[in-house]
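Lab meeting, action items carried over

1. Structure of the three-component assembly. Owner: GW. Status: complete.
Input record:
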Amino acid sequence: MKYLDEYRDPVLARRLLSELRATATRPWAIMEVCGGQTHTLVRQGIDELLPAGIRMIHGPGCPVCVTPLATIDAAVAIAARPDVIFTSYGDMLRVPGTAGDLLGVKARGGDVRVVYTPLDAVRIAREHPDRQVVFFAVGFETTAPANAMAVLHAAATGLRNFSVLVSHVLVPPAITAILDAPDNQVQAFLAAGHVCAVMGWTEYEPIARCYGVPVVVTGFEPLDLLEGIVMAVRQLEAGRAAVENQYARAVRRDGNTAAQQAVRRVFRVSERTWRGIGPIPASGLALTAEFAAFDAEARFPAGGTPAVEHPDCIAGRILRGIAVPTDCPAYGTRCTPLSPLGAPMVSTEGTCAAFHHAGRRKPPVEAR
Amino acid sequence: MSAVCLGVPGRIVALTGAPDLRMGTVDFDGVRRPVCLAYTPEAEVGDYVIVHVGFAISQVDEVEAARTLEVLRAIPDALAGELGPEFAQ
Amino acid sequence: MTTIDPEQLTCPLPGAETERVLLGHGSGGRLMADLLTTVITGELGERGPLEDAALVGADLVVSTDGFVVTPRFFPGGDIGSLAVYGTVNDLAMRGARPVALTLAYVLEEGLPLAELREITASVAAAARECGVRVVTGDTKVVGRGAADGCYLTTTGIGRRLPSATPTAAGGVPGDVVLLSGPIGAHGTAILSVREGLGFEADIRSDSRPLHRLVAAMVEAGGHEVHALRDPTRGGLASALNELAEASDVTVEIDEPGLPVPAAVASACELLGLDPLHVANEGCLVAFVAPAAADAVLAAMHADPAGREARAIGTVGPPGGPARVVARTLVGSTRVVDMLIGEQLPRIC
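Predicted assembly:
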């Protein structure tokens, strides 16, 4: 595919690795924020080829992993209702709630359907005027414009039987929370290329300045990631802390203003609980008053027991980069992709699942 | 073959004038599907866009793409030695 | 400003589904393997490697298979021809030539007769093509809603070719891993016409019979053809894992060298799927002794079903764990796992 295959050239990958070896004189810890980047690093085994001392910390950038338990429980309860068709991206179906997941609801007769795009959920609502159609609107800034358009489109066409269960999160507050943690080890960030395609990178400039950390907006192909790492290490070695853009073919400084406008109209910034991290102020999106009628949580109030968390899983420490999956006593034994104890083992973008699928069984060698 | 999450580049092959929503057909190297182009109002037939969950979120800047590749290809082949798994530390 | 309290960080214990059958139990991956071992073979009291077909007596081979594909007509095939080819291929994976088939229909009340006729005509044409007869059968009708249109169940009866001894447990260190053709075409063709994911793709199912290809391979390699498997549901990754586990060997493959058609690669990029997990209906993998590998590969190239055959890896040295390892694009390695449950499109 054009604009993908060129960035998978094994010869250039090797050159970038030698460039990195020539550049790095000290150990550095770099966090890739986005689960898609984690996926490429682990699937291609890139992190194992990095020079000794260059350590990649896998960040919290997987909407599946950070969707709070209470929201999963609400999804499971709504999906089980006989009057509801519950639509979702495929990622969310295996995320464990307090009492089972959406696949289990489906097995018990719930009408749960995977859609590729939120516009399909709107179409299903139009085709089934006698049923309530609920769409599970999850994601980071990348997905917010699409989910916003679904609401705008439903509103414009007067759909009364469509609503959204919103669980949107924002990247910059999470980065700030990671940097504020007393045991933070992250020295530079690879920012998520597609989040920045929508939002631009101006909101990362104060972070780079105030915390003195390099931020490199990075794409998702092997060469993108390697170049992003090289750019971050160059900054670290030179003692610089700026925002740089590796992913120039898709990201402009101001992002996509049309998409931002739609998001601002449909959503407002709100406090959000991150699974494994806890509540972070102004780190999520909720529907604005204008579109409150489309809020599934208001339409189907939950009357359940509060979510109870399990103490064994160290997801929070993994999501913040202070532990790796192989540090977890449950990893690979009581917690596997087939029976996940925690969300990072559910999504293939989750750090634990990425490790497990790649057959990681022993702790990586410590940075020198 | 990394399953790149979120965004896949494809070429707009047709604009399908939906009255209330800018839609088009995007070709991904032999796979075509309808894509909402509301957020890329300037993108026309022949342009490449990055598509996420059925929406174009960004137009590919072909000049920047070429420049990135030029930079990558200009990196000298430092060592003749193969970098294999033996380098993995 | 927020600081994170590590004490706050916990994770849920899921109520794992242990009571009911999930769709993922039928996807040909790890979940299905677990269902077989924990429920089915356990209750039956049967042990041994899971084979596509069973050897009964000296050279009689028997196989059974159910077909429930949705939609019933897809680019490159339909449920009728698929039932014949799928059964013939299961026999072929034990080195057998098909002799006879049986065919049982489960029909839903309301299925148009024209569609039933079309499916049956497709069965007949496919059977003729394979040189095999449908010798007996059965027909049942269930009420509307109790089945999805039409299900087919077959039994295949075959005779093992002289000097053919392939078995899932037959792989030994040093074997060359051969793949007969491109992967992922069938699953991509089915996905392209599935409601909700609809896309147009320049791709047709690879559904076709493989018994002539196997006959040519056996003629060239005889007993040196150690193991055969057609990677259907669960894709190439699941088939290789099954062989690795049955043979108790490490399989090493070269990922960049795998033949993935452009449309399969693109569909997988779009939906976040792995081409190694996408279904096939017309290709096979073989473990062949290195001395015979070139001759077997040449024989494969001479057959239409093996024109694009290639070596994709080897069986590793003895003592390694029973698993599949891929050399990646950048020269690193990773473990290739089976498909876990159901293949779910991803956004992230």
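2. GW to write a short summary for the group page. Key points so far: Chain A touches chain B through 65 residues (CB under 8 Å). Residues 362-368 of chain A have pLDDT under 50 and may be disordered.
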